[in-house]
Amino acid sequence: MRIFAILGVVLALGVGVYLYERSAASLPGGESATAQIDTVAIRQRLLTIAETERQYQAANGSYATLEQLSQENLLPGGTEQRGYRFTAVLNGNRGFTITATPVDTNKASWPTLVVTESMQVTEQ
Known about the structure:
Layout: H1 2-25, H2 33-60, H3 66-71, E1 80-81, E2 84-90, E3 96-102, E4 113-116, E5 121-123
Antiparallel strand pairs: 1-2, 2-3, 3-4, 4-5
């Protein structure tokens, strides 16, 4: 009789582990947990760079390239993070576009993210 009880508990635990692993492997949107964490970190990094651009423009009257921000020690971590590369396109004093592009071959299907002076991060 005890054997059936033990087998029932083991079977229930096995089913629970299977369901947990299945749900953890694929989160809403079809992204893995790692993809979601990295994407959130890249979005935050883009917003930080955009805020730095706005502060630089307020102090200097123009936006800066990422190289200029690095030279001024305003871009800690450089232009690559978590398998993404950051690039900037300046539109004179009117605005900027910062793009985060996946460069890690394991992240080739991940989204390219963009932020402008409006401080809105979008996917491309």
